[in-house]
Amino acid sequence: MSENATIGAAGTLTIGGPVSLAANNVSITGNGNIVVLGTVTGAGSINKNGSGTLTLAGTINSTGGTNINQGLVKVLTDESLGAAGSGYQTVVNSGATLELVSNVGINSDNILLIAGSGVAQAGVLHATFSDNSLSGMISMMGSASVNINSGSSLALGAIGELDLGLDLTKNGPGILRLLGANTYTGTLIVNQGTVSINSDNRFGGLSGLSLAAGTTLDLNDFSESLGDLSGVGTISYGPIGGGVLTVGAKGTNTTFSGSIIGTGDFVKTGAGTFTLGVSNLIPATSSVSIEGGTLNIGATTQSTGRSLSVAHFPERPAALPPRPLN
Asked: What's the rounded mean pLDDT across residues 164-187?
């Protein structure tokens, strides 16, 4: 392209050959469907505006990044958001959706910035089929939601935030896999499906977790540290177990009335009060430790057969001698 350009379609427009942006930017507009099959090169940026759909099925070798401001962008190949080693940046703004269609694995050195709940609440990130991954650095510009269809999974790299206290919401029955050590300080709100970790401490100690009814955090035999924990879902130590679940570094007061299943240790830390609700079950946990704050255990919580240790308990002041009667 010799100058900045705007491309729009009311129906479907397919671009089959290579696209050279040079140093120019291209804006995709309109409510139609535009499909790019070829390789995109140059230093310009791709800007998605309008309510239509842009499908990227080729390799992006340009360096100007992709800005998804409105509508839907579908990604069909591993290099549709930048070639390997390019450090390509994609921004998905509030009201827009990035959709990974099937077996898409975006390169780990690519950068992704996200915000919002997507088009018609479809999620700022939407995995529609099979196993997909965005393993590079992810930064939340605002609180965001992801949607994962049944039979699909989405693996995410380390998730950070540009403002403190941003939340990530998971919708859809599919599996969210946490690949990186997250640094955001808000809460992962799980409304549907399963969250799975593949290594120790994917929540980074300060990210909270809220589990709705019917949802699961699968520790896969690893250890995890949650800033706080609430909800009524299930936490599984994994088929072998042996991990340590630590809760409370945020120092907030929360209640968890779900189930903790499998074999592992439980540690309460931080200054707040953590309450295990009356429906909570903790079978076969080898030990429960209180390193900070208060642990309240509901009346019907099962704790038989486990040891309880307290890191510090203040000594009771010595009793004063009785005052003589006058």
From this structure: 97
- Is residue 61 domain-resident? yes
Centre a 10 Å sphere on the Cβ of residue 85 and count the other Cβ atoms it contains.
10
Does residue 318 belong to any structural domain of this protein?
A: no
Q: Can you read off the two tokens belonging to residue 148?
A: 């994962």
Any residues with CB less than 8 A from the CB of 232 and at least 6 apart, and which? 211, 212, 213, 256, 257, 258, 277, 279
HSE-up (13 A, CA, CB side) for residue 78: 13
The Cα 97–Cα 113 span in angstroms is: 12
pTM of the model: 0.90
Task: Answer yes or no: are the C-beta atoms of 260 and 231 closer than 8 Å.
Answer: no
**Contact yes or no for 98/73 (Cβ under 8 A):** yes
Angle among Cα 76, 170, 253 to the nearest 5 degrees reads 155
Q: Which two tokens stand for residue 155?
A: 């693996």
Nearest by Cα to 126 from 104, 158, 159:
104
Q: How far is the C-alpha of 80 from the C-alpha of 73, rounded, in Å?
A: 10
Structure-block tokens of residue 89: 């940046």
Q: Contact at 8 Å (CB) between 88 and 69? A: no
What letter represents residue 156's amino acid? L
Name residue 160's amino acid. Answer: G
Could you report the per-residue pLDDT of 115-133, keeping only the tens digit for each? 999 999 999 999 999 999 9
- Quote the tokens at residue 320: 């004063």
Single-letter residue type at 103: N
Residue 326 in domain: no
Domain encompassing residue 124:
17-310
Q: How far apart are CA 320 and CA 199, in angstroms?
A: 54
Number of domains within the chain: 1
13-34 core/surface letters (b: 16 or more CB in 10 A; e: else)? beeeeebbbeebbbbbbbebbb
- Asked if the structure places residue 59 within a domain, the reply is yes
